[in-house]
């Protein structure tokens, strides 16, 4: 594939035809080389059933050719037109309360509906065969942000039928379903698959195993929905890539499964999105970790394929729907783009070219404002492109090389959502406590799956290993045995993969030997924190306390309050050539820092920077490119090693301005 | 129409017939001269379809004649009886989630339903022809508080059909709908009106233009529902007035449209209603502005027809449904009544005569308690009537004469509800920041519409002029050109009237010339305030910041924090013979005060009073009547000018007691 | 019935058959003598319609015989199996919004459904005739926690039909319904019973009288549902008891009515349930009243039959569903058990034997953890059993003998839920302010019904006597006349029993003479407290203020703020041989304490203990057994009278350890 660095999301159908060449020439002039088109354009391209209206898009593609802009085409199945709804009102999805969600926004579709599938097939076949071989078209995106707005949809009878079929495929017999769902409890045994329904609202309680399978099914359904379209595209548009605009840690769809269908993954990033918790943001900013979560999402996206990726939608101005987020500060849009590149992005596509006159997203501003008059976003991005494009060509194929990994698992995330244990216990927040500490130390991180090969890593952190299979326990054991350092946290091994509890063994089950501990008791820290003593000082644990009984482990920290004061809170156990750590509670920032000091031996050496200044490198055996980024809204002192060569001559090696970046290069 | 000062809302059907003459004689003895009857009495007057039972009401009317009480009759369409529901269950309204709202309260009706319309026609025809010519009957009220409890109702198929018809009337073609709704966004184009539905809950997002039209339609529907009944009444009850009990700034129905059908408007006022935000009230009380919003509502009501009005329901005791508000303090009921008169009320009708034994409103207390034993309310109101009736006769036809106006617009209110921008940004609250400052200065205010003749005013304040038509911009321009002073605030001119964004021009569009500013950027102040510097001091702006680029305007205030510190926050521009002010953010109390000082030239001179002491006058060319009201719960010092003649001899010109009023007269 | 002290709730169907005898022998070894079985086992016992599978349970019963364990059997109608739902989907209950609640949890049933009744009849007949005569079976439980999860269910057409029939039974004619519901208000009159529906969601407001009848109906329906099953059981299983596991003050079902069907009542107690308000708990703990509410529930349960009772489910470890509560501290499980015994429990059944592998309640831990390895709970309970069993045999039939009673009424509770008046006014919380003060004084309390014989008591406290019938007023009058001391509180006598307001009389109606006061005015204390002066000191009242006008009563306390400062807040009136107290507001802790000092003459003498140390005795004419319990998490000093004989020799008469109990015996 060509070396493309910058793109925009463009909606020519929103603008008069006369404007198109003005827009495209302005893009060209900025340094844009790729545009994404048509992912919400169904009604413009098929205004009535079978009456395809492809001419206008063909003109746009020809204009793209004239301006040497490459094109990524989307399929518009996130927005079926009114005529589809009129024909098949029951594709409007059903929520868990049994009520429909109606036409008028987007994602008003049931992805199981056979009639809807047929409609999609007609559209995508016509569309892909019409444009699939166009020389400007280099790739495809199916639908948009699959899983978005579809959190708990759809519960309709088509989805129930698909769920039954999925269960039959997974379990074979109804007896096996009963076994794996523990239906004996509360008399929930099924005699046949026909008795199974979607987990709609109950009078009281849900079966956690059914709930987990529903989530797994839902992810599979959406992936199959993607595959259904991807096959048509591949048939009619050979030698083009298919990618998808993922949404970081969003978990409706298992992105590992989806990525198998893709040449590379993409990510949508809105760091001042209207949905932000601005109160929480302030706390993070005070600690200098405001953009640590953004970094985590970029690392996660890169980790999916352990390869470079695209940002398919990068925020380019103030954005929102009915409510808006804050406007980016000067320098921030560039800084976000550079952070994406630093963590492995090869191409940055800005959403969107120009703020739209109409619809739900009329305040999701683009590079150009509604007025069309180039302003701060335009000039900042244009400057960025000119400055960083050569560097991006240079680092293409060179990526961060972490020695530390954090385990991320969709199933664990689902299971903890189904049973959060503590009202504030959240799978991602808990993972993030580890990531944040590593981020502040400028230590690069990969995210890995549970059964992936962990041998590239010296240290693997596996938080909340709630669901545990024998194979998985063996994998963890082998890693430690061969010299790996492994950290697990509270609630490890509590469940089988079917969300049934482990019985007949002390926790953490088969892993007790590796960690040298048993867990016989635990406390849910409702409206109370627990004190934790480490090296004679008192810190704080929260939300949950596994009370550890070391069998052969050493105690690193003990509880210092509650009736289990003096019991172990954190332990370490040498096992084989490695070490295994068990952390019984959620650690506050200071305690996390002190705990991580214990792991110093296996942490890579990195530069110490002031809070909010991030350094990450893209490197290979010959060279390292260091990206230094100041996410704080004030200038900060830095000390760049002498053997780092400034990539841009104007850089000040002792100071980095507010919201600015620097790049250094070092030959090995 | 006769000169009637005081009335009560009376429900004889709730009481034994023997009680009626006792009640009426007590009313008479108090000074009551008018009673409102029958606006919830359908099942008592038509207990079964077509079986009218008018005798009891006829008896009441005859008794009213005996006691010389005039009567306003209501139609009971806010409470269709059980037999109507049994006959047509689908008049029970449908909410936006598709679920019905059932019988058992009130307003359980769909106002589009043809069968229900027919039922109403039968009732109102029979009722109006039976009682329409009765000599006691002086006027009518259709339904009750139209729009109340109907905020987002009804979404049923009849309403959808009516919506389609309304759209066809407004736009003519489906192409025009698509154009004005911007349906190209997210593939929402319609091929025919039949594809259009009510904006029920979606999976994700709403079309803001559809949402605005739905609100406008809804207002029109309710007004047409009123007109449908009013026509029958006018046919059968000639020479009687029709009025309606409005609810201040409630915005489901456009009261300007409704008022065209009415001889005069009325207002329902419950200043200690159970729904109050008592925490917010405390803050207002501390600043002495507890009753400023009540004053604003009275001014708004008077401004609708720029004429005297009735209070159709004035709170007369503690009130509530399942939850109650506070009981009025001694003096408050009188003070509320006097405040109403001061702002232009000609007649005060108290809700209700006696606390009801039964139903949802059994704790919505009346002048008499449940016991029937006259108490504090009875004696306070009786005293008030005797004291103020002569004055009310004297001031009839004389009204406040404001030189300052605030623009109020239903469409702007709807549009800001649909897209509040900031979680706490509220159209009425924003307007109120201006009103409150004027109130504290004892400056009388009219509310005006956008396209109304503003020539009577020296100063017009037009907050949040979000929707802007060319005609409207021209109107604003002309006003300034001819010497008017005009204040607009943030987000002015952002939208066309169809809720599509203005494009191809810098904001505020055509108004840039008048205001001498352009707005290229703005910030949404999420969880943060912005500092504003005016005359060297620092104040606070909140929620939103338009960053102003003066082209020819002068800068009054600048931002003093964020990256746009030193950019303009408030500007003034001399244009033609007038001045145009642009205020870029929501001002705190102190900043508002300082800003208003800038407008001193065009503010009328008024008396300075301590916080909580309000003065407003009803005046004509010969005379001014000054109403001095102490809304604070403590005595306060005042200084009444020597040339103001005390209306009541017992008044202390240097002190006004807690919750008391005084009246002065001055010949010009 | 045999003298059984300890039991467990056991679910053999959750475990392999091989485990059964291990479990039963472990129980036996602990001292367990009774097990509850099968109350959620429908699908295991009737896997398909009519295909009964009783063999496994028969084996369990035989094993129970082998281990000398008695058995209580449950009917499983709280969990109809999937095949029942498949056959009759419309037994899935309908919520007030018209949406169903679906299969997947429990209580997914409509208790009116005739087809479901038939299904139950088949099951219970087969089950009871199969096992009813088994020698191990000593008793029965119908369904489980009737009323749980069914708070506002079901509103389906079967329930509506049952409601109509119930109304016809209660009122005879539709005219009487109209009369008692006050349907004239808002035109709600009914012409026939067919027009009556369940009180589903309305657009605006509910009829409070309909709402009250709906609650009363619902309780009756559930009691009739119980009776329907109980009759079958009694026919097929003669000479066995039927009990039911009640839930303290839960009010969906009137437990007095239910208890008439039972040999004795049982109670389920989870003092660290996941639903607790831990913030509120902290406040209670600071005052030493953390377990006062638990004591109140135990007293209430004992009071239902004024007899000994069972705890059918006593918490035995950490518990929860998706969210967990805190784990019990060492000693707490024993302490909870002893508190139950102290207040009158004869038998303690622990929920559950072993933590379940599966389902909604997999974290509702049992005596054994999932691992099956005996831990803290097991050993603590085993020790308790051995220590306390002899005492329990000794005190059997001896109960607390309170001289003070608090009136509790389901109807008052319903009526205050329907109209709470103040957002924070809560019937149980208000009652609890009185209970708590008595608890802190170690004064034993009975709960009594309104029309019960109160002659055993010197003092009766009757809070919130909102609904009042003439018969009830007479009963209260008689009690005082004959020498009783009676305390009533605000809002007394406001309503007739049909939830219509009292009219034509000053409040509290007929009771004015007894209390020597009238109430003509009141205030709802929204966001404000009122000061109350008693004996020259200032205290605080909250939520509501009845302004008392003494006719012949003496004033104990006056208001000291608001416009009614100096008006009476608390009064006492000597009437006949007794005294009648009227308390006009909700008292804070200190004011309650000072008020209760006024009643010293009629309060029994008790030992003063530090906060959190509770003493209650079970006594008869010969002997008193004093249970001393330290509910604080710290050791506390006590002073045990010399004539109290230590029941356990190791007890320290001057100190009681954290979370520990002591027992003393005194011969009279």
From TrEMBL, chains A, B, C:
UniProt source species: Enterococcus lemanii
Q: What is this protein called?
A: Beta-galactosidase
The EC category is hydrolase
Q: Output the InterPro entries linked to this UniProt entry.
A: Beta_galactosidase_C, Beta_galactosidase_Trimer, Class_I_gatase-like, GH, Glyco_hydro_42, Glyco_hydro_42_N, Glyco_hydro_b
- GO molecular function: any one? beta-galactosidase activity
Q: Which family does it belong to?
A: Belongs to the glycosyl hydrolase 42 family.
Q: Which reaction does it catalyse?
A: Hydrolysis of terminal non-reducing beta-D-galactose residues in beta-D-galactosides
Instruction: State the Gene3D superfamilies in the record.
Output: 3.40.50.880, Glycosidases, Golgi alpha-mannosidase II
